[in-house]
Amino acid sequence: MLPSEVQKRLKRLAHTLKPVVAIGNKGLSEAVLKAIDEALYTHELIKVKVATEDRETRDSMIESMLSSLNCFLVQRIGHIAILYKERQETAN
Asked: Which of 40, 44, 50, 82 is positioned for an S-S bond with 74, CB 3.0–4.6 A?
């Protein structure tokens, strides 16, 4: 869980973002998870569009993303999930 002041700041930053990954009728595959993980590594804060009409399926997909990628849900509005994952710098 993110601290509320961090979550508010991330919501403001995400306001102008466009979805970088869209999940369609085929659902959450390994390739889609990899694309989301790469986008999180590059940007840290992204929007993902989950284009399914069933709310339970949408919630389940979002929960799967969070647990699989070890990221945080900043906000969910309709079909859009805002995800955040702090970039882990590697030591050289």
From this structure: 82
Residue 2 three-state SS: coil
Tokens representing residue 90 in the block: 């590697």
- For helices 30-43 and 55-69, the axis angle rounded to 10 degrees is 60
CA distance 14 to 21: 14
Proportion of the chain above pLDDT 90, given as a percent: 84
pTM of the model: 0.90
Which CATH class name applies to 4-84? alpha beta
Tokens read off for 76: 């969910």
**Rounded CA separation 68/37 (Å):** 9
Domain boundaries of the chain, sorted by first residue: 4-84
Q: Are 91 and 80 in contact (CB under 8 A)?
A: no
DSSP tag of 44: S
